[in-house]
Each structure stands twice: as C-alpha cells, then as structure tokens.
Amino acid sequence: MPAERVPLLDADDEALLRLSRQRQLALSLEEMRAIQRHYRSLGREPTDVELETFAQTWSEHCVHKTFRGVIEYEGEVIRSLLRSTIARVTEELSPDWCFSVFEDNAGIVDFEGDYAIAFKVETHNHPSAIEPFGGAATGVGGVIRDILGVWGEPIANTDVLCFGPLDYPYERLPQGIKHPRFIFTHVVAGIGSYGNNMGIPTVNGAVLFDESYVGNPLVYCGTLGLVKKSCYMRSATPGDVLLLVGGRTGRDGIHGVTFASTELEEDAEEAFGTAVQIGDPIEEEKIKRAILQVRDERLGSAITDLGGGGLSSAVGEQAHRFGCGARVHLERVPLKYAGMKPWEIWVSESQERMLLIVPRRNLERVLEIFREEEVEASEIGELIPERVLRVYYGSEKVAEIDMDFLFGGLPEVRRKAEWAPPPLEEPEFEPPEPGEALLRVLSMPNVASKEEVIRTYDHEVKAQTVLKPLQGCFSGPGDAAVLKPLRHSWRGVAVSCGINPEYGKIDPYWMAASAIDEAVRNNLAVGGSRIALLDNFCWGSPEKPRNLGALVRAAKACYDIARAYGTPFISGKDSLYNESPMGSVTPTLLISAVGILEDVRRAVSMDFKERGASVYVLGMSRRELGGSQYYRMLGFLGRSVPRVVPQEARRTFRGVEEGIRRGLIRACHDVSEGGVGVALAEMCFSGGVGAEVELSRMPAESMRVDELLFSESNSRFIVEVARGMEEEFEELLRGCGAVFARLGVTGGRELVVRYEGREVVSLELERLRESWQSGVRV
Amino acid sequence: MSPRILVLRGPGTNCDAETVHALRELGAEPELVHVRRLVRTRALEAFEGLVIPGGFSYGDRIRSGAVLARMLSHALGRELQRFVDEGKPVLGICNGFQVLVETGVLPFGQVGEPALALMKNASARFEARWVHLLRCSDSELLGELPEVSEMPVANAEGRVVLPPGRAQEVLDELLQNSQVALRYCTPSGEPAEGRYPANPSGSFWDIAGLTTPNGRVLGMMPHPERAFSAYLHPCWTSGRGTEHGRVLLQGFVRCAGRA
Amino acid sequence: MKWEVRVAYRRGVQDPEGETTKSALEMLGYGCVEEVRSAKLFIIEGECTREEVEQMCRRLLANPVSQEYEIRRVE
Amino acid sequence: MKWEVRVAYRRGVQDPEGETTKSALEMLGYGCVEEVRSAKLFIIEGECTREEVEQMCRRLLANPVSQEYEIRRVE
Ligand SMILES: Nc1ncnc2c1ncn2[C@@H]1O[C@H](COP(=O)(O)OP(=O)(O)O)[C@@H](O)[C@H]1O
Ligand SMILES: [Mg+2]
Hints:
The complex is a heterotetramer, with one copy of chain A (about 775 residues), one copy of chain B (about 260 residues) and two copies of chain C (about 80 residues). Chain A is of the alpha+beta class. The longest helix of chain A is centred in the C-terminal third of the chain and has 21 residues, at about 545-565. Chain C is α+β, with helices and mostly antiparallel strands. Chain C contains two helices and three strands; from the N terminus they run E-H-E-H-E. Chain C is about 30% helix and about 40% strand. At the A-B interface, helix 9, helix 12, strand 17 and strand 18 of A face helix 1 and strand 6 of B. The structure holds adenosine-5'-diphosphate and magnesium ion. Magnesium ion binds next to loops of chain A.
C-alpha cells in the first residue's frame, strides 16, 4: 500500500484550492502556496502523507491560527490575541501555585504536598451534531485522555451543553439537521454512558437552550485529574521508544480536525461520515489503569493523547517539544482491518489510543503492565536527534518532513475584526404580577431543574463527592461541586462554571465579564478560594469580521476581569467554525473555575438550613435587565446588559470567603439567571425552609419591584447567617467594604417577599419547586 | 484478627478503590485481584471473604454482570461453589449483585442457571439517587444496620424480576427463608410499593438486596461504600449525615473475621 | 454460516425500552402506535451448529427468567 | 399491523457489544465464532403506514449517519 505523490509543483492557484477541497485539507490558498514553495525548493512533489501532515498540524484545531495570528481591530493591530489577553493574565499574576499552564494537554495547579490538580475542558460540537451519542461520548473520552496525557488520574467530569429549543417545530428544520430533542437525549446519553462506564463522576455542568444552536449544538466536556508532581515525567530524549497503546486504528475519525475547522454544511453527514465514532469506555478504563501504573513506577519519559490529527500531530508535537525528530513505522500500527493507506493510518483519530514515550531500558516492564490489563501496546518508532520526521511504511519512506518548516512555516494569518453595538432598545411594558412572573421564570428552560439530566450521570462514584450537583435535602441547584480527592486529607477541590450567551447578543465584552464573574462567585459560594480559570470559546467563523470583533471584545474582557480578580487562566480552547445552514451560533464563552478548600467540612451548600436565621443580600443591584431571563420570558432582549465593577466585586468576594472560613455563613447561593427572586426561591425549596424578605432594603439603583426581583447584576450572593452571628458577620462585611443588607429571616413553608411592607410575592415552597421542576423534561 | 478479603475486578469494574479503602479502614485486609489472575491462580480459597464491587464489568454488554459471571462460573465454578458452601461471606454491590445473580449464587446458593434477573429500570434510564432501605432480615452480614437506613443507588439495571407466572411462589420461598434483606421504603419505613422514586428501579416487591438462605451471601443494588462517611450524605451540610454504609460493611468484615 | 439470535423480554415482563419508545413516538405525533416492544439481535458468523448456538443462548445471551430467544439461520 | 424495525451500526463503526460478545463466547469455548455483530429491534404495533414508520426511523429510532435500519412488515 504505497504512498501517493501529489502533483503540486506546477499547480496554479485554482488547482491548489481544488486540491485542498478535494482532499478535505481545509488549507487556505496562502497555506497551499507556502507548501508549494517549500517543495519547489526541495525539487520534488510531496507525498499524500506529507500533505496530510501539514493539513493536520496547521489546522485551526491544532494551532489556533486565529488566536495566534494578526488581527486588525478598530485601528489596533493585535499580534496573538491569546498572548495579549488570556495568557497575559497568568503571566502578569505569575502565581507560584501554577504548576503547568498552557503548554500541556491540561492546566495544572498545586493541591497538597506532592499532589496537583489538572483541569481541561474541550468541545465536541460537530461530531455531536451528526452523531450525538457517539459525538458526546467521544468528547468525554477525549478530554479524559487529555488528563491521562499529563499523567493525571481522572477524578471528575463536567459537561456544559447548548441545544436548540426542545419544542422547535420539525417543519422548520433544514435538511439534514436533527431535531434538538433528538440531539439532547442522545448527547446526554452519550456523556452519561462514557463517564459512568469509566467510573468517573460527572459533578458539574449546565444545559442551555437557544435558537442559534439548532443547527450546531455545543457540547463542552471537562475532566479534572489528580497529578503527582514527583511522577510527572516530561524529559524524552532521542532513542526513546514511541509506544502506541490502546485500541486499534481504523478509518474512523479521519479528518476530524479539518472537520472541526470547517463550517457544517448540508452534506456534512456524507462528507464527514468517517469522522463519526461511538467510543469504547471500557477500553479507556483499562488504558487508564495501565498508564497510572506506568506513572507510579516512573517508567515513561513523556506521554500524550491521540486526539485531533491522530499520530501525525501526537508524534510531531512531542518530537518538537523535545527538540528532536522522530522515525515512525506505520506498518507496525495495529489495524482494525486491512487495506488502510499509510496516510489514513497516520491521521486516523480512532478513539482510546495514547502515545507513550519510554526509555528503552523500561520497555519490557511497560509492555508487561499493558499485557496485564489486556491492552495492546506497540512500539512504532523512536525519537531521533535530527529535526526531521521520517515516516515509513515497510521499506518505503512515505514522508520526510523538516520539523522547522512544519512548526515554523505556517504563514501568519491576518484577519479583520469589527464590532458595533447592535441597534437594541430597552423595552417598555406593563409588568406582570410578580408572583406569577417568578413561577414562570423558574420554569424557563435555562433556569429550570436539570435533575433529569444530572441523575442519569453517576456523580458519586469514587466516593469523593462531598457537595453534589443537587444540594440540600430537597435536591436544589448547587453552585459548584466539591470533591475530597485524597484519603488522608480534608482538603477539597471546588468546580464551577459560568456561561451566559444571552448577554453576548448585546455585548460580548460584558458576556465574557459576566461568565468570569459567575464562575468565580459560584466557586466562592461553596467555599472555594485560590481560583484558577479555563476559557472555552465557541464562535462562528472568524473569517466574518463581526464574529471576530465579538471574539476580540470577549478576550479583552477576559484580560480585564480575570486580571482584576487575580484569577489566572491555566488552560482553554477555542472552537471557531460553529456555523450551520442556519448561520453562526451565538458567540458562547464558557468559563470553568477550579478552587481549593482548606477543609471540605467547611463547605457550604445553597439550601436554607434552619428557621429563624437571617437572610442577607451581598452586592449592588443595578437596573440592568438586558439579556435577563425575565426579559426573555416576556419576549424581549433589551440592551442594559449586566456589567462588572471589579473593585466592588472584590470586596464582596472577600466577605464571602472570610464569612465561610469563619463558619458564619450557613447557606450561600450566587444570584444569576432569574435574579434575586429565583435565588431566594431555590434556597427555600432546596432546604424545605421558607423565608420572609423586604426588597426595599436591597442596596440598589432606583427601580421597580419586578426589576429588583429579576435584575441579573453580577457579583451578588444571598446568604443565610446563623442566629446570633449577625453582628460578627456585618462587622466582617463592613471591614471588607462590601455592600450588603439584611433582607429578612428564614422560616415557614412559603417565600414571602414584601416591598415597603406590601406583600408582592407569597408562594408555597411546593409551588415554587413544581414550577422549577416542570421546565425541562428528558 | 484482620480477615483477608478478595475484592474482585474485571475490565470496567470501577468502584474497587473506594471499596478497598472502606474495607481497610474497617480493619480488614482487602486484596484487589483481576479476574484473569484469579482464573490463573485459583487462589480463592486463601481468603475469608469475597466482595464483588460495583461498576460496569465488560461494559454491561449483553446484560449487566453476565460476562463476568460466566467467566466466574465457567472457569472458577467449583471454587466459587465451595467458597459459598463453606459459609464464607460474599458481598455483591450493584454490578456485583448482578454478577452474583447471573452466576446463580443468588438467591439459592447454587452456581448454575440464574433463578432471577436484574433488568433495565422501569424508567429505562441510569439513575443516581439516595434511597431509604428497610431492613428485613437479621443476616449477620447486615451488622448493626438500623431498621431504616440511607444509601445511594446508581445503576441502569437494578430491577429485580422473578420468573413470570411463578413470581409469587418464588417470593414466598424467599420470604420463608428470610432472604429478602433490604427493601426500598419511604423515609418513615413504609415499603415503597413500587412507587418512583422511593423504589427507583421498579424492582419487584421493592427488593433492594437479597441473601442466600443461610444469609452468608448478600447482593444489593445500593452502594454502602458511598455512604461510608457522614460528609458523603446529601444532607450533611444540614447536620443530617449518616454512615449506614460503614455500619453495613462493618457487619461484613466482622463476619469474615469469624469465617 | 450466519445465525441470527433474537433476545426479547418474556411476555409479562415489563419492557421499559419499548414503553419509553412508544411514548416518545406519541410525543412526536404518531398516534397510530399501539404498542412497541424492544428486542436485541446478535448476528453470529462462523461454522457453528444450531446446537452450539442454542447453548450460547442458554449460557450467555439470554437470561432464562426474563428473556426468550429465537434462533434463525440466515446464511 | 405489525412492523419490525431493525437498527444496527453501519459497517466500519465500532460495535463494542458485538466484540465483547465474541470474546465472551470464545472464553466459553465456542471457537467456531468468527464475528458477532449486535443490533436492536423495535416491534411496532398499530395502524401505521410504511411512510410513517420510515419517518419514525429517521426522526427517532436510528441515526442514518452511523446506523442503518431495515423495516419489515410482519403482520
Ligand atoms: N449538564 C449537566 N451536567 C452535570 N451537572 C449539571 C448539568 N447541568 C446542570 N448541572 C448542575 O446543576 C446544578 C445547577 O445548575 P444550573 O441549573 O445551571 O444552576 P445555576 O444557573 O443556578 O448555576 C449545578 O450543580 C450544575 O453543576
Ligand atoms: Mg449558580
């Protein structure tokens, strides 16, 4: 099965583009020309294996051309958006507790002693659009391998899912697009199946609905891992063996990377049918055991997952990282079936495979470990001192690529970005009755209970989940999960997320600011501190200047807010071609946060605990209902998007952190979608304890009662303070300079809300809960 | 004396680490052994107790527990039968329960054809939630477990099905021998009577756990190792955490200590 | 040779997958559906005799308490 | 009327259930088995037309990207 020479030297521009398209290379004319120039200088035609290597290594998915390229934006020239915003936060903060940031498959922060925590979030959008079960399942499998790829033991999963409305009319679905309900049920089943089978608890996430996701759902999958710093091996040298472990290689998943870097079109099913995979979690479970054994015996010198681009990227990137080259023998790769071409073997993205690099003296023992777990392990080549990638198939050399060109020859991408505020107006309307409105907001799909999803995920396997996604005796919506990953220590990890694409429709800057704020406050609410962030951008094509403008604005907010909060980014990812025949997705930024608790026994859940305790609101409420669930329920978007005032927020955050540390706070819930009204209702029915509050006491701009109830201003919390502790608590908050007010007391079987003494809401816990539970049905 | 307990695993077993940890903390000497190795060494005899933990052995393919069960009864059938006959304690948790049913060991202690089935939950879904359990037998394996206890379930196939047409007959036999050890119930201890979510799987007669007639083999869908510390309980933040899983496992370890 | 083994719930045993499929179809507006039952199929290739396949069913593929099986030779 | 819908993964898509079944059968000593594939069956009763059943398959029962389905009228 020989490699093919691809005639490139004499091709004109049109022919170059045709070639890129026909072979699904997703390379631009500029890039094709660069390759052509390179081969002209070599005086020979490239092989198909070589061409494929460039397509993979230079794909948006692998090198983030947009984020690292040049962007012209409002007269400004940005060189590498990534370096000038996201990574800059971490660089400037340079916290000594960050063990590894941006260079590995996952970000890693110190935890306790020799232990560190790794965290990574990925997306698997296009595969989930066409094969939702397999796409989501392999999304989970893939991000777990990212953790294995830093020698980490996976300890928890997260998932954030964005779908079209579940009641979307079938008649309006374009050809080839699956109904949101079909996608929803199968994505949830896929995520549950992979995590449950592998025995990794799924502890945090979110589910959102918006019309723009009908043609292109978003599936974010995250995994946390436990890393032993003393067993973190990254020091490969020439002569070390390349060991391919795990499942067999097949045609599946070919061109997944270029698929992810292309817009979804009507014929996507046909064109990228091979990108579809189902996944085998049991295979990955076995691999995990073997890898952890290799880790504990310190037998490897490096490791990486096989994800996008398959062997071509994994081998190339590792060789590059260690400043050497590699020799690979493709005929040694175990195949699922005969007849695969060398280039197919080289770029296949078959699931459940990892690449280990092993000093030759350890090889025998490593192979024995894999045999014990019944996992195939094959020596496919080795690292070599020259900076060149030599790929063989039998005796034939099918590729010889200069590493410096492969990793340095990519023409700089230059794009234009623009942004103008959309022409939006603040609505004027007769406010509905507040109690009625509260019940309706509680059942809005984005607010309503996701219990039916959450319970199909095992969130307790490993017996480390101290705060679960559903909290309180009556299963309310927790802000963050808390894990206790070490047997010998009470130290805990808090995991949370923040996401609100509604705000992005008004201004992506404030959407990003709000997402960071939400992720951080969710984490603080359970007792997390020393928080690190991950960013995941899901955007429409960056070749549309408006999309790119939105991206620039969001990235700038990431810098401004994270810098002000002192929360470094440790990892992230972008997925930039989320387009379907129905247009671009709403720009969507997910921020995930990981924090530390000194002692999990101090963790705080969001449910009200006892009668007669004091209820406080922390933070300033503003008249900013643009993008709120309340407006959405009434059919408006508005324009007064919630902003963030970092200095003010930090004072509130300090109060919460310290209040929890001192044990003054018995219950804590962040105020997010649905505002104070929803937060209070959730705290009541989760704990089975009612409350009576007076809204006029809220520190707020002047506004109507319904606005007070449903404004989604950032950086706010509702807390329950134990009886008798009020004074100490208030003193603490004053000391922090935080804005706050005591709103009322807990007790009874109802939520009673007054405004200047007049009762505006009076609802039984049961009714509140029922509304909340009626929103999303699987 | 600390009993040696074999904790069996196969590909896809995934609750082994916490199970081993729990047993060790209770003073036992757990040893985690891969089924292939057990088949090679046939060392079952050397242990005082056997635990088959939860998970998805062989991916729950064909039926949950079926493949691991066949592996046991085919390659180790005689050893397993002897272990059971000698009255050494055996505990199957969740997937382990399914395995014991598929080997035939539960409910009548005979390696062979299964006499009942654990089928897909009535909801047709995997489901993770805490349940209340009614203690219905004085089997030593349950230790000091109170009349009503709390533990979490997490499974897709936990619905006990007795042979259709003969269900009542078989149930009567089980009851006569006091083999129904645990039933799903309400917080106040009334049997769930099939009602969701108190009975999360739709299990027949609310059966959550069964023993052999001599009470020495226990299979249960709920996970005691996940109810091992108060801070794993969903209401611990309200000061209402319990440790019923620890209590139950203590009973098992004590029993193994005497074996 | 090619055998098809079909494993289905015995009558009288609840078939949750069939039931949820039915209600999902109803939700989609297919009022015509009266009942849905689910079953599993194993397609086994190889030189196996019918007795061997019978045995496989009894020993592994079906649980005799809740399931029944049917064997068909297709090639 | 009674329809039988058979849904299976397309060739080339991994079938872990089939693979595990094969190796379990081998372990039990059935050396004759060369390949096992798994599939799902839905038996739908009711006055539905073939077009309706076709639609059910496309909308709910199968995903044409990774699976193929076959509809048979049995009664
Ligand atoms: N897809 C999901 N997977 C896992 N947990 C989820 C998922 N969706 C929501 N959750 C959990 O449900 C709880 C409430 O989330 P959510 O409804 O988004 O509330 P809020 O908007 O108040 O943060 C959280 O614990 C969250 O982790
Ligand atoms: Mg929240």
